[in-house]
Automatic annotation (TrEMBL):
HAMAP family: DNA_HJ_migration_RuvA. The RuvA-RuvB-RuvC complex processes Holliday junction (HJ) DNA during genetic recombination and DNA repair, while the RuvA-RuvB complex plays an important role in the rescue of blocked DNA replication forks via replication fork reversal (RFR). RuvA specifically binds to HJ cruciform DNA, conferring on it an open structure. The RuvB hexamer acts as an ATP-dependent pump, pulling dsDNA into and through the RuvAB complex. HJ branch migration allows RuvC to scan DNA until it finds its consensus sequence, where it cleaves and resolves the cruciform DNA. InterPro entries: DNA_helicase_Holl-junc_RuvA_I, Hlx-hairpin-Hlx_DNA-bd_motif, NA-bd_OB-fold, RuvA, RuvA_2-like, RuvA_C, RuvA_C_sf. The lineage of its organism: Bacteria, Bacillati, Actinomycetota, Actinomycetes, Propionibacteriales. Residues 153-199 are annotated as: Domain III. NCBIfam families: ruvA (TIGR00084). It holds the Pfam family HHH_5. It comes from the Bacteria. It comes from Nocardioides lentus. This is Holliday junction branch migration complex subunit RuvA. Belongs to the RuvA family.
Length: 199
């Protein structure tokens, strides 16, 4: 099992990054918040999780081992696959996810695209005794991406989480005034998701 990847970043896309390890470029599917901290040409270390399917091998990358561990644990709940698990962490983060499950906050969980009321209740029931309490560890602050880059990353993140391009574009426009000179892609993605959940 691959648990981490360290090497030079060859490329950063809208939903994935390529990291060179031992002369081999590994593509890792990452949430926008993780991608925001990567720069092509620089060294990076990502926690990783390999998801094996009959027709594919997909490597997921995370800023911290805690995110990876939550991603893997979330998939043990019925009906939660890697895409939904990644969306849970993109929208909530590890500690917010733990808090929502510990307090049986279905409203917070249903903010994640792909999770309805019944799904949220099932996740709480199946994970409450295993996910543990919030640990209070924040991810290391990522360097801010260029102003133009955050729009593309948030848009791609929303589309990847199941929203239509039109809905995603509207949500990006709604949060543009929150971007500031050094946009926080993860925060903007969460704000855009809140906008979509209200509409």
């Amino acid at each position: 099992m691959i648990s981490s990847v360290r090497g030079r970043v060859l490329a950063v896309g809208l939903s994935s990054a390529v990291v060179e390890v031992g002369g081999v470029g590994l593509q890792l599917s990452c949430a926008p918040g993780t991608l925001a901290g990567l720069r092509a040409g620089e060294e990076a270390t990502l926690a990783a999780s390999l998801v094996v399917r009959e027709d594919s091998l997909t490597l997921y990358g995370f800023a911290t081992p805690d995110e990876r561990d939550c991603f893997e644990l979330a998939q043990t709940a019925s009906g939660v696959g890697p895409k939904v698990a990644q969306a849970m962490l993109a929208v909530l983060g590890p500690d917010d996810l733990r808090t929502a499950i510990a307090t049986e906050d279905t409203k917070t969980l249903t903010r994640v695209p792909g999770i309805g009321q019944k799904g949220a209740q099932r996740i709480i029931l199946e994970l409450k005794d295993r996910i543990g309490p919030p640990v209070g560890t924040a991810a290391s602050p990522a360097a801010a991406p260029p102003v133009d880059a955050w729009r593309a990353q948030v848009l791609e993140g929303l589309v990847g989480l199941g929203w239509s391009a039109r809905e995603a574009d509207k949500a990006v426009g709604a949060v543009a005034d929150q971007a500031g000179p050094e946009p926080d892609v993860a925060a903007l993605l969460r704000a855009a998701l809140r906008t979509l959940s209200r509409s």
